[in-house]
Specification:
- By secondary structure, this protein is of the alpha/beta class.
- Helices cover 44% and strands 16% of the residues.
- The chain is built from 14 helices and 11 strands.
- Strands 1, 2, 3, 4, 5, 6, 7, 8, 9, 10 and 11 form an 11-stranded mixed β-sheet that branches.
- Helix 7 packs parallel to helix 9, helix 11 crosses helix 12 and helix 12 runs parallel beside helix 14.
- It is globular.
Length: 402
């Protein structure tokens, strides 16, 4: 399809509209000539769309040109104010494998959940509207999933730097080695590493739909950031069979550092909240205690990463959120130094637990640091002191009511 056609203004549609999936939220537009309901669908690709007209063309065409033909593309337009929806309708008229859901500012998590509910494929794939696939991605992940009876199939990805229009290699973390040589594995073999073994994003993975439905795995519907981490971490925790294809099959578009900082500065409170809800889901399914160390390192390291991206004012607010509430709720207080994979993360978590941001900055200026050789002793003493202060606060509160 030519670029001129894609960018042309869509004609008034005579497409049929189904009843809303959730009243007032998601309605579906289908090609009246579509015969997709009568075909076997091996993979449903779910793609949320919001004001993505600048980049959506390579995303859609990378899906429609897949060597695996028995697929459907479910696009969920979340109230775009640009030409994104018009472009989707034009592509849909040319390819009846496309289905379009329309919402109004429901957010990416709810959009993907609505896509899952509509999906008819045996497997689920997810793509952001500005990323794009290699032509064989779905076929290779589908084939390995069928051959090895997988709940999750993973592939490598690289980074596409939007400003410089160039690709660069993504360096996976050390825990990714559990998938070396195409081995089939899970949390049963690697309980201390499984949650950190791959990116928390869903776009480089294929999920068995029956597994996702059976375990009740969803995206967070009330978060604008890390809503996919909740989904992916939950899936990694409950999956019995996971494997990886050692090929770069998806390209993840990134923007400049300033853009990332702006995003994180706006939505950083969603990060620890997402981990809190993830912990609750794991506990409900009996998976938190077996995977506690992996969850500790994942949540600490991601919060540490976000903290370092924030500017000073947001740094203070984020730090104090963790200090006042999340360090305890996320289980950071019930750990030992040996539970952490990195000393740097351990020290940061200890500071967050023991001091407010103001106290921490003051200590840094004074050159006072935690003795890493006695960090467990220091944390235990601090925990006892905090419990004593909490006891006194409750005691005086009760006394004041008399």
């Amino acid at each position: 399809m030519s670029e001129n056609n894609v960018n042309a203004k869509a004609k008034a549609s005579d497409n049929k509209t189904k009843e809303p999936l959730t009243p007032g939220i998601a309605t579906e537009t289908v090609n009246p000539e579509a015969s997709i309901l009568d075909r076997e669908i091996k993979v449903s690709v779910i793609m949320p769309v919001y004001n993505a007209c600048r980049y959506i063309r390579p995303a859609i065409e990378s899906i429609l040109s897949q060597t695996l033909r028995e697929i459907e593309l479910i696009c969920i337009d979340d109230g775009s104010t640009d030409t994104s929806l018009d472009m989707l309708k034009i592509y849909q008229k040319a390819d009846n494998r496309i289905r379009i859901l329309t919402e109004t500012n429901a957010g990416p998590g709810l959009a993907r959940n609505n896509g899952i509910k509509r999906a008819r494929g045996e497997y689920l794939a997810f793509l952001d509207a500005d990323d794009f696939y290699e032509p064989t991605l779905l076929e290779e992940l589908y084939n390995v999933s069928k051959e090895k009876n997988l709940d999750i199939a993973i592939c490598k990805y690289d980074i596409f730097e939007n400003k410089k229009a160039r690709f660069r290699e993504n360096i996976p973390n050390v825990h990714n080695r559990i998938y070396n040589d195409g081995v089939v594995t899970s949390k049963n073999e690697h309980p201390d590493r499984i949650l950190e073994s791959t990116t928390g994003s869903a776009w480089n993975k294929l999920f068995r739909k029956s597994f996702v439905i059976e375990k009740g795995i969803t995206f967070l519907s009330d978060a604008m950031m890390f809503e996919d981490v909740y989904f992916t971490v939950s899936a990694l925790a409950f999956a019995e069979r996971i494997s990886k294809v050692e090929k770069v099959l998806v390209h993840h578009r990134v923007y400049n550092q300033q853009s990332r900082v702006r995003t994180f500065s706006k939505y950083y409170p969603h990060v620890p909240s997402a981990f809190e809800k993830t912990k609750e889901f794991l506990m409900k399914g009996g998976m938190y205690q077996p995977l506690k160390k992996s969850f500790l390192n994942l949540s600490c390291s991601r919060c540490y990463h976000i903290y370092n991206l924030l500017k000073s004012d947001a740094k203070e607010v984020f730090w104090n959120m963790l200090h006042d509430y999340y360090s305890e709720v996320l289980g950071w207080e019930d750990t030992l130094a040996e539970d952490f994979n990195k000393t740097e993360i351990c020290e940061w978590a200890a500071y967050v637990e023991m001091y407010t941001y103001e106290q921490y900055v003051k200590r840094v200026k004074q050159g006072r640091q935690i003795n890493t050789d006695k960090i467990d002793q220091t944390l235990k003493q601090n925990k006892r002191w905090r419990k004593f202060r909490a006891f006194l606060a409750k005691l005086f509160k009760k006394g004041g009511k008399k």
